[in-house]
């Protein structure tokens, strides 16, 4: 009975997502520039779908491993590392370097930097800390603060013109994204998604805790290590593609928990993904049609997500 209700909710969310995506693509379409405008809007919707999948799936898995609904992969300092990579490029080689001006080179450098950082943190520190997730989180917070402070220090030393160009990298944007990068990121996210969906039932067991998972036949340490790497890749490629969106994962995954009232991951994974795409579409329409591109989408999402985070903290403190 409960599954039937959740299936209907998934169907409604799918219809809403398709309706909003269709509305965004067709609204105020200018037929004089149809051959430019239509592919541009379709590419934005595809990008939002890819980023929505990456952030929602990575956050659901991360919260399952940490057994905490107010944590997201951003707490490991990935956003800070991304800003550090962009800042150090401007600080050392300047704003005219291909490392910053060439979309593909910048994407590759950012993605490799983030993946190397996360592999070092997740894989090796996970072993060094004796598979202790919360010690790993503490190290991630310290490293995030370290890279954030280092970025701020270098930003104070560069000239104001370079800082204005660097500011574009500090906020996520779905405008003017290189087409080839969309498909490269889409292929990587699809590969990670296939790996997760092949054995998504094990997430239900891992959610019970380490001891229960081992007793039920799950190789906990190996599985968690593999999932942490998948989280690292998903967050890295989505951040390198559009920039950091700190509170999106927290917002959509907790909304999915509230709507579906279940711990079954088949509903949480799908529901969170659909909610992430809906949030991105609504945020993009607000940015584009209400604020006339004066405000970045990440500012709107972080404002809503930040308020929701405070509400969650207050609810948790009352328990």
Notes on the structure:
The chain is mostly helical and 319 residues long. The protein is 80% helix and 0% strand. The longest helix has 33 residues, at 34-66. The mean pLDDT is 83.
Largest sheet: none
The gross shape turns out to be globular
Count up the helices: 14
The structural class is mainly alpha
Q: Radius of gyration over alpha carbons?
A: 20 Å
Q: What string gives the helices and strands in order? A: HHHHHHHHHHHHHH
Number of strands: 0
Give me a quick take on this structure.
It is built from 14 helices and no strands. It has helices spanning 2-26, 34-66, 78-93, 98-101, 103-128, 133-157, 160-170, 179-198, 201-206, 210-215, 220-242, 248-260, 265-290, 297-318.
Give the SSE map.
Elements: H1 2-26, H2 34-66, H3 78-93, H4 98-101, H5 103-128, H6 133-157, H7 160-170, H8 179-198, H9 201-206, H10 210-215, H11 220-242, H12 248-260, H13 265-290, H14 297-318
Identify the notable features of this structure and list them briefly.
319 residues, mainly alpha, 14 helices, 0% strand
């Amino acid at each position: 009975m409960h599954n039937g209700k959740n299936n209907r909710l998934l169907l409604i969310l799918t219809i809403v997502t398709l309706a909003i995506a269709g509305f965004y693509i067709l609204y105020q379409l200018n037929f004089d520039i149809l051959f430019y405008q239509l592919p541009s809007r379709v590419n934005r919707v595809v990008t939002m779908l890819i980023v929505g999948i990456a952030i929602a799936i990575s956050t659901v898995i991360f919260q399952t491993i940490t057994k905490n609904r107010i944590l997201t992969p951003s707490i490991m300092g990935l956003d800070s590392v991304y800003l550090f990579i962009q800042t150090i490029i401007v600080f050392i080689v300047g704003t005219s370097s291909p490392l910053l001006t060439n979309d593909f080179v910048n994407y590759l450098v950012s993605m490799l930097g983030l993946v190397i950082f996360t592999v070092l943190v997740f894989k090796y520190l996970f072993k060094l800390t004796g598979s202790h997730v919360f010690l790993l989180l503490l190290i991630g917070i310290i490293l995030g603060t370290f890279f954030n402070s280092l970025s701020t220090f270098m930003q104070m030393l560069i000239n104001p013109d370079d800082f204005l160009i660097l500011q574009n990298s500090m906020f996520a944007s779905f405008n003017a994204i290189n087409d080839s990068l969309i498909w490269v990121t889409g292929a990587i996210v699809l590969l990670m998604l296939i790996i997760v969906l092949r054995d998504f039932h094990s997430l239900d067991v891992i959610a019970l805790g380490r001891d229960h998972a081992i007793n039920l036949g799950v190789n906990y340490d190996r599985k968690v290590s593999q999932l942490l790497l998948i989280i690292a890749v998903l967050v890295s490629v989505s951040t390198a593609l559009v920039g950091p969106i700190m509170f999106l994962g927290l917002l959509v995954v907790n909304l999915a928990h509230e709507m579906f009232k279940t711990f079954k991951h088949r509903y949480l994974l799908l529901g969170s993904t659909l909610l992430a795409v809906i949030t991105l579409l609504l945020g993009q329409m607000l940015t584009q049609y209400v604020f006339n591109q004066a405000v970045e989408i990440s500012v709107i999402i972080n404002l809503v997500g930040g308020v929701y985070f405070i509400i969650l903290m207050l609810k948790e403190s009352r328990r």
